[in-house]
Amino acid sequence: MDVYLLYEEREWKKDGGYFDSASIIKDLGLDILYSAASHNQDEQEGGRRQLAGQDPFLGDVLRKVMMTPLTNGAEIRYRQEILQDVIRRPELITELYEFAKETVLQWEKLGRDLDAKNTKNHSDASLMARVALLELFVRRMETLTDLAGKFEEPMQSQGIRSFFSRLEESYSPKLREALQKILADISFYSEADHHVTGKDRNIHLVLTGGLMDGFKLNDLKLEELETNNKKRKRLRQKKDFMQLLLSTFDPTSNHLSFEETIVSQMIHVEYRVVDHLVTCCEGFVDDCRSFFENLRFQTAFYLGAYHLYQNMRRLKLPLCWPSAAKQDLLQFENLKELSMALLHRGMPVGNDVKLEHTMCCIITGANQGGKSTYLRSIGVAQVLMQCGLFVCADSYASGIFPHLYMHFTRREDSEMNSGRLDEELQRMSRMIDQIKNHGTAGCDTLMLLNESFATTTEKEGSIIAYDVIKALLANNVKILTVTHLLSFAQKMYREQADSVAFFSAERKQDGRRTYRIIHSAPQLTSFGLDLYQEIVEG
């Protein structure tokens, strides 16, 4: 039984994740998105109401999946189509997730670590636990098929349609009937029935056979049994189990007068019959283990994404379904920084851009003009696109970069064992080593740099930045950088004006910042005097 809601032909597994995902999450403020995904909220007149408490599992799943990028446009479209179905019919994913969650909770109560292959210790307790787990999974599969039948309207996405088809095929009427018959056959093997032993155990046994000399039993056949729960089991038709059952008896010791011996051996027969039947169902139980774990995880991703969608709609933020393009294209309209919007519950300034045949973008301009916010908005959008989600823009198209790196300047803190420049150089060195290790000549690599190497002198920082970025570009790494290193920006403009895009934070004549990023040659100042006058002169 396969879920296949995150990938068309396989289940999700954590491999191929971003290098240093912790830095990506921190630098882009993605924890804000995960928190929004963890809450189920809805609107009502006079404000919003929270329908349910926080479910941290949703945010945790979103984080794991977002940090494991997709690698092609088909995978991205597969998830987008499923999410579009979820948005059209949110009750589907809500009920599937709650169902899977409740199944796992019931499983945990029985002992989630219970492994049928490792608990065959020939004890009633372990066998009863296996029986209870089988009963749980059969019961939950029955409920799941009923739940699937509720959604009669055909879903449009291939992923959900295929999920329902696989469910119907895997849990077929034939398999359902066989499992129900097995559970009926072993229904006498109840926990209550095993609190009593020996003569206190009310067992009624019907055998056929002959008598040998000394009143010894011969040609013994089991016809019928009844336990103290008053349920009768006929084994006459189970000819394939008869040899197994008879092998548990020693005819030389079974004298009719020895009641305790008969009862003891009957208990052993019970165990062997039930153990054999439950063992026959191990494949089904193992499939259910992985199925319900995957169902809970994968539906959690879509439910968390739907909560994020609700938050964006409530704030009237733009939303689009991004498209994968060539590596040298970056194009968007009204792109906003989603983390900031959710944090401040406002509407950030949007930006437009169209960069074709460009692998490097350098952004300079006024302090506090929106440059870092602009860079983060691209980073957030790229991560969202590469996990199959929507983007906070009117439109967004970009290449796919499974190898995404962040190099944002860090404040000096107690965790640093050296100066800030040394720390920046060490981080850059680790990233470059990783780029060399994945061996793709950088063609699927995107690096976002925010004020890198600004922790030393302008002259030294400019030299370092120039050498590093020239080397990365020579290896086909796409680079977007915000910098205050004006010597570096001017040199790149003189030498690479035709192949590098240059932008600047817009500043009006009166010093006002519009927080828009516009095409512009590198300027010779960051207008720090504006900030001085604002702070000092009030």
Give an overview in words:
With 538 residues, the chain is α/β, with parallel strands linked by helices. The chain has two domains: 70-314, no CATH class; 319-410 and 418-536, Rossmann fold, CATH 3.40.50. It has 17 helices and 15 strands. It has helices at 21-28, 31-37, 56-66, 73-88, 90-111, 124-150, 158-170, 173-185, 239-246, 259-280, 282-314, 338-344, 371-385, 420-438, 458-474, 486-496, 528-536; strands spanning 41-44, 47-50, 204-212, 216-226, 232-234, 323-324, 330-335, 351-355, 360-365, 395-398, 403-408, 445-450, 478-482, 501-507, 513-519. The protein has a six-stranded mixed β-sheet with strand order 11-12-13-9-14-15, sandwiched between helices. Strands 6-10-7-8 form a four-stranded mixed β-sheet. The chain has a three-stranded antiparallel β-sheet with strand order 3-4-5. Helix 15 (458-474) links the parallel strand 12 and strand 13 (478-482). Helix 3 (56-66) crosses helix 11 and helix 4 (73-88) crosses helix 11. The longest helix is centred in the middle third of the chain and has 33 residues, at 282-314. It starts with 20 loop residues before the first helix and ends with a helix.
Q: How many H/I helical runs? A: 17
Based on helices, strands and strand pairing, what is the structural class? alpha/beta
Strand coverage percent: 15-25%
Overall tally of domains: 2
The biggest sheet, with number of strands, parallel, antiparallel or mixed sense and barrel status, is:
6 strands, mixed
- Percent of residues in helices: 40-55%
C-alpha-based Rg, rounded: 33 Å
**What is the end-to-end distance?**
67 Å
- Strand tally, please? 15
Q: Mean of the pLDDT scores?
A: 82
Report the principal-axis shape: elongated
- Low-pLDDT ranges: 43-51, 116-120, 191-200, 227-242, 244-251, 253-259
Strand line-up across the major sheet: 11-12-13-9-14-15
